Amino acid sequence: MREDWTVVEHGCDPEQVARRGNTFLIGNGYLGYRGTLEEYGSKQLVGCTLAGLYDRVGEKWREPVNAPNGLFCRVLCEGEPVAVFAPRTEIASHEQGLCFRYGIHFRNTRFRLADGTGVVVSAERFACLEPVHVLAMKFSFSVSDVRTVAVETGIDRDVWDLNGPHLGGFRLVARDRVRVLEAYTQEAGIPVATAEIVLDPEGVFRDGGTSEAGHRLYEIRAEPDRTYTLYKFVAIYTGKDVADPVSAAADACMRSAAAGYEAMLRRHRELWDARWAVSDVSIAGDPEAERALRYSMYQLWIAAPEHAEALSIPARALSGQVYKGAVFWDTEMFMLPFFLHTRPDIARKLLRYRIRTLDGARRKAAEYGRRGAFYAWESQDTGDDACTLFNVNDVLTGRPIRTYFRDKQIHISGAVVYGFLQYARATGDDSLWLEGGAEAVLECARFYLSWAYYKPDKDRYEWLDVTGPDEYHERVHNNAYTNAMVRFTLHTACELADRLRKRYPAFWRELVDRLGFRRDLADIRRMLKRVYVPQPDDRTRLIEQFDGYFGLRDATPDELKAEMLHPHEYLGGGNGLAAHTQVVKQADVIALLALFEDDYPVEARRANWDYYEPRTEHGSSLSAPLYALVAAGIGEKRKAYEYFMRAATIDLTGAAKTHVGDLYIGGTHPAANGGAWMAAVHGFCGVRVGDDSVRVAPALPDGWEAVELPLAAKGGRFALRLTEGAVRVRADDANRGSVPFVVGGKTYVLRPGETIDVRLA
Amino acid sequence: MREDWTVVEHGCDPEQVARRGNTFLIGNGYLGYRGTLEEYGSKQLVGCTLAGLYDRVGEKWREPVNAPNGLFCRVLCEGEPVAVFAPRTEIASHEQGLCFRYGIHFRNTRFRLADGTGVVVSAERFACLEPVHVLAMKFSFSVSDVRTVAVETGIDRDVWDLNGPHLGGFRLVARDRVRVLEAYTQEAGIPVATAEIVLDPEGVFRDGGTSEAGHRLYEIRAEPDRTYTLYKFVAIYTGKDVADPVSAAADACMRSAAAGYEAMLRRHRELWDARWAVSDVSIAGDPEAERALRYSMYQLWIAAPEHAEALSIPARALSGQVYKGAVFWDTEMFMLPFFLHTRPDIARKLLRYRIRTLDGARRKAAEYGRRGAFYAWESQDTGDDACTLFNVNDVLTGRPIRTYFRDKQIHISGAVVYGFLQYARATGDDSLWLEGGAEAVLECARFYLSWAYYKPDKDRYEWLDVTGPDEYHERVHNNAYTNAMVRFTLHTACELADRLRKRYPAFWRELVDRLGFRRDLADIRRMLKRVYVPQPDDRTRLIEQFDGYFGLRDATPDELKAEMLHPHEYLGGGNGLAAHTQVVKQADVIALLALFEDDYPVEARRANWDYYEPRTEHGSSLSAPLYALVAAGIGEKRKAYEYFMRAATIDLTGAAKTHVGDLYIGGTHPAANGGAWMAAVHGFCGVRVGDDSVRVAPALPDGWEAVELPLAAKGGRFALRLTEGAVRVRADDANRGSVPFVVGGKTYVLRPGETIDVRLA
């Protein structure tokens, strides 16, 4: 078991430290703790990123707060630090690893000191799934000769900050055996309490006082080849969680200590087992793909805001402060499907975040002279847009480049609507509409209404001056993807209006009156008949990405790369190398085809895939999974598999851009992880949830003998087993109703406990 | 007299050579001959630019053809060249000058050779007004000691070319005493014949054979302090002029020789006197302004296509190949008024060029998926746009910058319409409408119709994604100037339709049927009621240059200059320093106020002048005259005078940009010259020709005691004399009808020969 679910790397390469911080990240939705070593500091990008807590210092970006590092720990041998990257220590062997089945980080390092002493340091840690405020660590060492050894541990303030420091007013408080470091965010003065308790189960250590850095020293005259162990619990609470974070953190430490490390770990593992029970995908015949997909799901799970009412997942999850800890369209378009079909209650929390931030979206629309809801391109706590107008610096001149991510990516509102509709479709549950989802959808439709222009000579409505998913081409007209999202949104608003009016007439009346939406709805219905969405050309079947795209200079990403003057040069912006060519940053027309597959015949999908693929740089991690998905749908198994693996392994290999201009954009890629799941489940397994039924039509990659996966759909749970020639679906005994499955062209209505076994022609 | 009408400069500074080439330019509308010395070559930018003859080599720009230099001439003393910038010669004194009353270039240079010999070289030349194919030169020298001197002269091929060589297939032909160099343009194979004849009136020179460069040597044993003189006539004909250019050029040389230099000069001066009789403005009390204004008019006269049927004036006139020899909106907006009120027959030729190139404008509209006529931003022979999509190179990276001059400056079509309307208004002549002007106007209106979008929630039509006169802000929405030009065009089309239908019903029926314009006209009438033109704010009275302009970073041109990394850095384009600030390149809102002065109260004009002036870089020579004009209208005499002088002296001082990016843009500035005339006559003299009358309301700058000027208007000619307190107008005896003049609030209908003398309150 351990082999399948573990990532282990050997040796210590400074070049790998940042990437390992992501690969070996642990987390529980409340916090993410980077995969750094216990002795690391800010230079090695130590970070304990708190979900949903943002702070801003001066004119710099607002970004998530990294808590002080309660897990800091290192060995001093005869007063000399024994640590990776410490002077006068040689590393005989080092392994760092992660058990991603249970989110347990571990390290084992054999040091050889200048005097020949061998020191072994081992540690293991996890971010408890219950309670999510607690981090637990087991820290051990042994020495080859009798030595005076101290373990230096404390709450270290030397943590990574992009635009910090975000905490001030530090105060160290002692509560019984717990020490609590109290601090306050700079902007809003929100208290953040980090508590630690150290356990010495054998009672062998003596108090060595305080280190230079103010940490405590646990001292011992160590005997050779005996392993000494300390346990540590760290608890973090903020003023957003409770009124008195100091007490809450201290109490959590005490309670964890009382329960003990093993008991805490046991409960933690039970909760992870429950997660895998509803999500694990086994792929017989391809252990590599299986492992990558499981690892991808791990990354999603550790970011899942299970503890919250209404919280979403940032684009770099909880791996740090990159991208301002902001939520992008990534959530609705790439992460949501995984949760919809495993834990729809978590999907619901993600969407509630969009309800909670609706007023921010309204403010943004008003700021741009529009009505309705224009969701933030980079959304933090309030829904106001954190995206700056000059988002990238030109590496050639050092000057800021005007980018139009914030102003022109109007497709974001459509992504939110798409999220809500996916929820309703996957769960069959109307309640989120009533809780605010309907209001959000209507306001998004109203926003598109107010962006629309009518072209009299063509008798159609157009959406002008927008940026599609391909950010290298800003301020374009009639981006096919965007216009399709507009039409989808207007259509959804009309359908929803009909449904709510019929089923919830009082609710509907109140909503429509409160929003003053009657006339808008009439306008939307009228407009819907005349929405212009660029269609495949009759002859070539190609969809033009936007007005005039085909007239741009034809080029490939490699050709542009040869023209680059600096490796981090930004290819977009007003005068970027790609901006005036056909090189696109990421799936754009292909994103449209992935979302609205059924609207386009396979020949059109193939023609566009073949055209756009060699012109796509995949400069965003969102690109590969969509290329995989569309390739799977047109039977291009090999290419689909390549793009799927590229998405699924992105945080294992770190094969993603780390810089745009002079901007560091490293971190984890939960959207690619979610996209890998989509490629596997929607793509290869052909599992698609429609309005009325679940369709299963597997087209497995070569070597995939059988796939087994659990699936939540339409309020029930199902176990699927798919091979190239057969589909088995078992409805859970506890299901409350029947759900129609369409397999091999036939519909089977699965009652609770029922199993179907269909051979495919 | 000579002092007033002459520009003389002393000394030889290599840095001044390019500028002097412009300042001392001579020309006659058929050709421009740069103000270089007789011994200069391509390095000193010798150019004889032919109007309307374009050629293209390979992938380079199409640009005007420079003829071989028939005026090449230099002295060899004992075989050694005696020339400016020649080695081993010292210049004791040098003057170069221009009599701009008659367009006569002269130079006097005293050389001191290494052996102490003094050599004086003098020359004088003019580009005949009749025939325009002929250049005449008188070339003299004297020596201080007995020396063997040769005059080397011929048709030199070493001339300035930006993207040449444009001529090939050279063949030297002898015709009697004339030598003709025949050549052909590269692209279209059009023959160009340059003929020369050398006259030795005293018969003192002997044939010295041929120089190394293939020129002829006229040799003499020169006596001390005696002046020896040769005369030379050069004639140029192309295949666009006649079927046999070689014979035509040879004949022209022979005829000129037969007439003799003095007779040719006499006729030339008569024709110039006739020009000044209809245009000279005398300004009592301010000889400096008077001289600058006369010089400005000189620059316009030497570019006037008097010889042609339908030809316009390039933005750099005939001073070289800069800006591709292309015609811009400069002609209609800045040069036309001068001709309208001096020689309306020349104004007509300029506008006929737009009729001749209407099909090119139609092709351009179609290229951009529009209907009607989208005139070329840079128009050459066919009206197809010579403007490239990447018009400037980035000096920081060497990369081309995407500019939207060609695609988005839709105001060009409005400028053409404005030109036609000005003609009709100034002359009272309908015939140009019938000759094609009406068709051009309707097609321009149709173009704007097809660019329009309707904004449903605002119930108005908008013009989106355009570039106004301020080219630093490309791709903006609802540029106030552009939208005003659109409304003006649609309005003009409607008024014209009414007029033609009433007065020329058969013509109108044929036109409207041929163009299929009935439905468009109905659409235009409907649209006209809903055209959005940004208006002055109720409180601030400011007009926003385009949607969102006031939201841009506020900055001044000086602030941006401090940020520049290179002196020639282009401030516009996608990421130029000005592009995302309020710094504007040139008058834009102020251009609107200059054109439609009567539509805006003086307070609004003042508020906008005060706001935009400190934010304007005047990066185009078109800017200053418009700032002068509007300043004059709001009573800001001092500021108006400053801007007027800046415009009027631009080609004397050369105080204009010579580079944009790595692009050389030096040359003369006929638009600024015409703008100076507008500022003086429309602005200070307050002479405005309306639909039914001529208004005269002087507001003279301090020190201008009296202004006298002739004025052509409404088919008549008038002599005006203005002081701050009085206006005298005399109608020419030869006028055919009466013209109403409005002076001091009263209307006076001037019959032929009548004079009014009005004291102003």
Describe the structure.
The structure is a homodimer of 761-residue chains. Chain A folds into three domains: 3-273, Distorted Sandwich (Beta-galactosidase, Chain A, domain 5), CATH 2.70.98; 309-684, Glycosyltransferase; 706-759. Helices cover 32% and strands 26% of the residues of chain A. Chain A contains 20 helices and 33 strands. The first copy, chain A, has a nine-stranded antiparallel β-sheet. Chain A has a five-stranded antiparallel β-sheet with strand order 7-6-12-17-16, with no helix packed on it. A five-stranded antiparallel β-sheet of chain A has the order 19-28-29-30-33. In chain A, helix 6 (344-356) packs across helix 10, helix 15 (589-595) crosses helix 17 and helix 16 packs antiparallel against helix 17. The first copy, chain A, is globular. Chain A binds chain B through residues 371, 389-390, 394, 396-397, 399, 401-402, 449-450, 452-457, 462, 464-465, 475, 477, 523, 565, 573-575, 577, 579-580, and chain B through 371, 389-390, 394, 396-397, 399, 401-402, 449-450, 452-457, 462, 464-465, 475, 477, 523, 565, 573-577, 579-580.
